[in-house]
Design a protein that fits this description.
Layout lengths: L2 H9 L4 E3 L1 H14 L4 E6 L8 H15 L3 E6 L21 H15 L8 E5 L1 H4 L4 H8 L4 H4 L3 H9 L5 H17 L3 E5 L3 H13 L6 E5 L25 H9 L3 H11 L4 H9 L3 H16 L2 H16 L9 E3 L8 H7 L6 H9 L3 E3 L2 E2 L11 E6 L2 E6 L1
Parallel strand pairs: 2-3, 2-5, 3-4, 5-6, 7-11
Antiparallel strand pairs: 1-6, 8-9, 8-10, 10-11
The structure holds one RNA strand of 86 nucleotides.
RNA sequence: GGACAGGUGGGUGAGCGGUUAAAGCCAACAGACUGUAAAUCUGUCCCUCCUUGCGAGGUACGAAGGUUCGAAUCCUUCCCUGUCCA
């Protein structure tokens, strides 16, 4: 590929690239010397469960690898103690080396579904942050001003609204910036919400006599609710290790509008292909195709077939799922339906169970059951409460 | 160190002595509708118990005490947060 083609390839699907000319220079330089560029992205050590939102970034990092460059998967085991200030944060207790190792392993098995292990370095920022002395930290702090830190959107907002900002939170961008110095990064990537932190990296690198890194941001993927960005804590995520069936169903649950965004950010389909698909006016078919692609990416084609078959049968035809759990009732629940539902894990509490029954949400062996007592003859019974199914052995 | 303001259910946010398990909104859950969805409409949304009733108890409004027949609402102390002044 020519340099122009490389840039076009890398730019596709990026939210922002700062600055393109610098990237061009480095790509040219790299081609000349044969030294690969170093592409960094940082991840929080506490949440090693990746979801599709993370894969937007990972897919883009993979593109750099495709061109022969090195990706540094940085686990922020030290900055993670602060927690990127997205809200009310306190310092988290330090993680033990065992926990960190365990999380790192989990990360590896997940990210290598996308990244090429041969062209990936997994690093921890405790490597250089932990040995820093107070004086080192003060020196680092001296390189940036409070006013500039407060320019960051969420800081500015919180400051203005009188929401607490703890001093240590201000240090987070500096720590992250120093990571780039320590790793001599050529490019740092992150979601658009990371733009500020990534830019601080440029300035700090300059202060340390390094050429400033190129900043590449990827768009944030909306969660399944279509409103907020995908995040585990919001419960609107699709995890990349989720079972094919669950994954398929979650994809089917997104709105038709959101589906096109997912096509754009989560598949290799070109924009014209997506537009063509959209023009066909067959949202149902398009969404199933999307769900198949995603399941196949993280599992296999066969798993995708199976997931689709399950979906057709269970959701579209409303039949009993193939994989429901069988529960044997403990003694003493008698014929109280709420107690049975609680014992089966279909309700959170007896009060909750009672409400659900009264609301007509309970189906037993295919028939709605709205009374609070039931005599179950010995044998197996299929219970359904909303989307949850259980087989109960009496 | 001083002067103010504030801490309510998953989130917002009303209530400022009693019809308040605590408005409204959002989220969530269930039902209807549907091509999966979305949207819309309806209902629910602390727990326990039973004689399942617009039932009876128990918890709950930062924490602990106190005043009251009665407190999320008043008082005291403590904890936490913000603003202004030094």
């Amino acid at each position: 590929m020519t340099i122009d083609e490389q840039i076009a390839y890398l730019k596709k699907g990026l939210a922002e690239l700062i600055r393109e000319e610098e990237l061009r220079e480095r790509l040219t330089q790299s081609a000349k010397t044969g030294v690969p560029l170093r592409i960094k992205a940082g991840f929080d050590p506490t949440a090693p469960d990746l979801h599709l939102g993370h894969t937007v970034l990972l897919r883009k990092m993979k593109h750099f690898q495709d061109l022969g460059h090195t990706v540094i998967f940085l686990i922020g085991d030290n900055t993670g103690l602060i927690g990127d200030p997205t809200g009310r944060n306190t310092t988290r207790p330090p993680m033990t080396p065992e926990e960190i190792d365990k999380n790192a392993e989990t990360y590896k098995t997940q990210v290598f579904k996308i990244l090429d292990p041969v062209k990936t370095e997994v690093r921890f920022n405790s490597e250089w942050l932990a040995p820093m002395q107070f004086i080192d930290i003060v020196t680092l702090c001296s390189k940036y001003t409070v006013a500039r830190l407060l320019e960051r959107d969420d800081f500015a907002k919180r400051f203005k609204e009188g929401i607490p900002i703890s001093l240590h939170e201000l240090l987070y961008p500096l720590g992250q910036a120093y990571d780039s110095v320590a790793l001599k990064c050529d490019v740092e990537m992150g979601g658009t919400d990371q733009k500020f932190n990534l830019l601080v990296g440029r300035e700090i690198q300059r202060d340390f006599g390094q050429p400033p890194q190129i900043v590449a941001t990827t768009p944030l993927l909306q969660g399944t609710d279509g409103v907020e960005k995908m995040s585990k804590s919001k419960g609107n995520y699709i995890g990349i290790t989720e079972r094919p069936k669950v994954m398929f169903r979650k994809v089917m649950g997104i709105s038709d509008d959101l589906m096109w965004r997912y096509y754009e950010l989560l598949t290799d389909k070109s924009l014209s292909e997506v537009a063509e698909l959209r023009g066909r006016q067959e949202p149902m078919a398009a969404k199933q195709a999307l769900a198949r692609i995603i399941v196949a990416d993280f599992h296999s084609g066969e798993a995708a077939d199976q997931a689709q078959a399950d979906f057709d049968r269970e959701v579209r035809e409303g039949q009993v799922p193939s994989d429901i759990e069988t529960i044997t009732l403990p003694n003493g629940v008698g014929n109280s339906l709420p107690k049975i539902l609680l014992a089966a894990g279909l309700a959170d509490s007896r009060t909750d169970a009672e409400r659900k029954v009264k609301a007509g949400a309970v189906e037993i062996n295919g028939d709605r059951h709205a009374s609070l007592t039931i005599a179950l003859p010995p044998g197996q019974h299929v219970f359904r409460l909303g989307k949850k199914w259980k087989r109960i052995q009496v």
